[in-house]
Amino acid sequence: MEKEKLLFYNEYEAFYEMAEKSIAFQNFCYDSFGQDFSQDGFSDVEQIDIVLSYIPIKEDIHILDIGCGNGKMLGYLQKKTGAFIHGFDYSQKAIATARSLFAQKSDFSEGIIGEIEYPSNSFDAVVSMDTMYFSKDMSAFVGQIKRWLKPDGILLVGYQEGELIPRTFDEYTTELAKALKNNGMNFETRNITKQTYELLKTKREAAIIHRAEFENEGHIQWFDMLMMQTKWAEESYQQFEKAMARYIYIARK
Predict the structure, then answer these.
(1) With contact defined as beta carbons under 8 Å apart, do 69 and 91 qualify?
(2) To which CATH superfamily is domain 3-196+233-252 assigned?
(3) Among 186, 167, 231, which residue's Cα sits nearest to residue 204?
(4) Quick check: helix, strand or coil at residue 87?
(5) C-alpha–C-alpha distance, residues 140 and 251, integer Å
(6) Pairing mode, if any, of strands 106-110 and 123-129?
(7) Residues 123/60, Cβ–Cβ less than 8 Å
(8) pLDDT tens, residue by residue, 18-76
(9) CB 102 within 8 A of CB 77
């Protein structure tokens, strides 16, 4: 498949080019999320620490990140666990950066969800923060992930409804929940919708603080993008919750 035809491919190539060079964006990430993971979404350090709390503590652990971007979140997990980290992303620029930043105990590949393959029973944990939506067949992709997991492996997913996919009734009626059930994977969830709403406010405030830095770098279009992404911060939580929801799924093989 031609990657240029995939959802947001060209936009993400430009995004990771900017994220590598922009001090304004790095400062924005620290102020918004507590860490610079080159976030284009809601994966703040609090959410990643929730994910971290479920990763097994043992020797020779292997973690796969689906849609790993430039690898900064995986680098954080590696620092905390000592894991061998694996990641794939369709962005050539992101993977090139990941390989340069995290050369030890790592394997980064260019790949597309649903097309890339790994050997069965490879990973102790598979992490997907806001990337499951890119699968053409979520149930089939969950089945693929299940094969990749070791017998006691765990799948950890940050999942949001209301933008790329419609809002459903609750965490048990989402497309991901259906896909997990179809593949016989038991799961629990953490509802982080309220935290996400509060994070939107923080993101908007941080973007405004760093506006002049973005402008001085010639990156004002990324400031404009951040303002667009955080427009819900101007609405009440009640309005936000009717339209949006965010969960962390913890699923076991």
Answers:
(1) yes
(2) Vaccinia Virus protein VP39 (3.40.50.150)
(3) 231
(4) strand
(5) 16
(6) unpaired
(7) no
(8) 999 999 999 999 999 999 999 988 899 999 999 999 999 889 999 999 999 999 999 99
(9) no
